[in-house]
Please model this.
Amino acid sequence: MSTPVITYEETELLAMGTATLFEAARFDCDLDPELRPSWPGARLCGTALPVLAAAGDNLPLHWALEEAAPGDVLVVDAGGSRCGFWGEVMSVAAQARGVRGLVIDGGVRDTAQLEQLAFPAFSSSIAIRGTGKAWRGTVGEPITVRGRPVRRGDLVVADQDGIVVLPADRVDEVVAAARDRVEKEDAYMNRLRSGELTLDIYAFRELR
Model:
């Protein structure tokens, strides 16, 4: 008997949020919490296009835009370099290619313009220092972002709570588990609104 295919929409995953997806996954899939949205309310959902860049060199990101497909999220390991790897110019180019957003262990700038463009960027710093163009880096090859592996085609979801990267072959199981979690939490919320305590709902009284 074949396993049913789980279908989902971007809006559903964003509504679930990264915290729910992480809890539903039951494995380590979160990126370092130092990677934060560059403007309030930024959030994204798409498939990972991994990029490896050198400190202070954003040439690989330019090459990545050529290879990017609609729905991709650029996930960049730049070693936490505090330089402005990305800004308004790159965001306009990315949106024209259908890129959903950027996650970078490195800096971004032009944050006011990014917000006006509604281009979601998550970074380890906001930095105005410029970058060089000396090393092509890699595009599409597996990378590691602060200990977390990222492969092309993995699902990336990011919001103000954090960032999750779900391996492509485990997305269906996580989404199914997340849906179950949302349904249960909705029921819990109704009980809380009626006055029940978390001690009783979650059976915490037994933990003494």
